[in-house]
Amino acid sequence: MKKYPFTIEPLTTEDPTSAFLKAFEAILENPGYRSILDIYSRVSMNCTRCAQECQIYRVSRDPRDIPCYRSSLLLSVYRRHFTTAGRIKSRIFGTPAVSEQELYSIAESFYRCTLCGRCSRFCPMGIDHRIVVRLGRFIMSRVGIVPKALSVSVNEQIKGPARNTSAIPLKALKDNLEFLEEEIFELKGKRVRFPLDVRNAEYVFFAPVSDYLMEADTLMGIACVLHEAGVSWTISTEYFDAINYGLFYSDDVLETLVQSMFDEVRRIGGKKILIGECGHAFRVADMYLNNFTDRTGIPVVSMIDLTARLIKTGRIELDPDAVTERVTYHDPCNIARNGRLVEAPREIIASFIKNFVEMEPHGRLNLCCGGGGGTVSVNEFKPYRMAVSGKGKADQLISTGAELVITPCANCKKQIGELIAHHKVPMRHAGLHDLVFNAIRMNNSGEGD
C-alpha cells in the first residue's frame, strides 16, 4: 500500500475508508454540497478542454492532473455510495466499496492541484472543479488526511497562545513594529506609527503574519500610504493574522478563523476590515465573511484598492523616477480569477512605473505561481512545485525579459522567490507596496519630525 504523498496525523484509529464515508455522509447534510454533487455527477466530463488549459497537465501529461479526471474520482464515490441508483447497482452487481487505495489516489490527485480555478473558466459545462477539490479535501480533513504542515499552522492559530500561524508572541510583534518605525524614520525622515488597538478606527488592518517576519518593505509601504493620506487605522493585538488556510482544505477551519477576525473588529469598534497584500486572505474575507457571520456594516477592503483610490484622489504622491527597472506583474489567482483585483494594481503601477511589460496570459486568465491551494506551505511538495506546477510561471517570467516581478501575495512571494532561485531566472521579486515605499513622497508631517 502506498503512503500518502504528505505527512498526515489520522484523527481516528478506525478503518480510513469507513471513516471517510461517514465524514462524506455527514457533510452531505449540507444541501448545498449535495445539490452540487448531484448536478455534477449527471454531467458528462469527457471533452478534456480543461486539460489543455491546465498549466500543471501541460507539463506533467499525467492523467491525475486533468481537472475533470480529478473531479471524477470524488464523483464516482458519491454516485456509488450516496445515490439511489448507485446503491441499487451495488446490491445487484456487487460493486466494491471505496478502497484505501482509491482514497490514497483521491488525496494524491487533489493535493497536486493548486486550486487556481483556471480550468473552470474554460469548462463548456460550467463545472467548477475547484469546488469539487475543496470539498474532497474537506471530507478528508475530517479524518485527518491533510498535510501535517497545514494542520500544525492552523492549530497554532486556533488553539495556540499567540493565535497566529507562525506562533509570533505579541511582544515580538510590538518589538518588530517599533523597529519598522525606526527604519521608516531613517529612510524617509518621518515618524510613521503602526497604531495598536485604537478604538473606533476606520480600518482594522490584517496582514499575513509572515509579513511581520519577512516582508518589512511591504508593511512600511502600507504604513506610509496610510500615514500620508491621514487614514484612521489600527492593528489588533489579540488577533492580527490574516492567513486562513481553511480555504484550502476545511470549511470548519474557514468559518472559525473568519469568525475570529469578525469578533476582533467588533471588539475594538472598527468600521472596516483592511487586508494587506495577500490573495487568499482577501478572497476569504471578501467572499465568506457574509456566509459565516453577521457582518452588517463591516465592509472588506483590499489595501491595493485603497492605495489606488488614494492615488486617484491625489492624497498620496509617488516619484516617477524611483523605479528604473523593467517591471512585470504577477496576478495572484485568488484576487484575479474572478476579476476582483485586476485593474487596481495596474493603476498603481501606471502612476509611477515607466517600463512595464505584461505577462501573457494575465488578469483573469493568469497562470498560477504554482504554489496555490496551500501547497507552498508543504515542504514535501517543493520538488513538484519547482518542476511541474510552477514550470509554466517560470517560463512566463523568463519570457517577459523583466528585471523585477511585482508579487502582491504572501504565498506567491514565497513560491516565485523559490522559482527564481531554482530556475536561475535573472530577476528579483517584490511586493507592490515595497515599490510604493521606495517612491512615496512624504509631505505629511509626522510626529517628532
Explain what this protein looks like in three dimensions.
The structure is a single chain. The protein has 449 residues and is mainly alpha-helical. Helix content is 51%, strand content 5%. It has helices at 16-27, 31-40, 49-53, 55-60, 67-82, 84-93, 100-110, 129-141, 148-159, 170-188, 211-214, 216-228, 246-249, 251-267, 279-292, 303-312, 333-336, 343-350, 382-389, 391-400, 410-422, 432-439, and strands spanning 203-206, 233-235, 272-275, 300-302, 327-329, 404-406, 428-430. The strands form 2 sheets. It has a 4-stranded parallel β-sheet with strand order 2-1-3-4. β6, α21 (410-422) and β7 form a beta-alpha-beta unit. α5 crosses α6 (84-93), α10 (170-188) packs across α12 (216-228) and α14 (251-267) crosses α15 (279-292). The chain is globular.
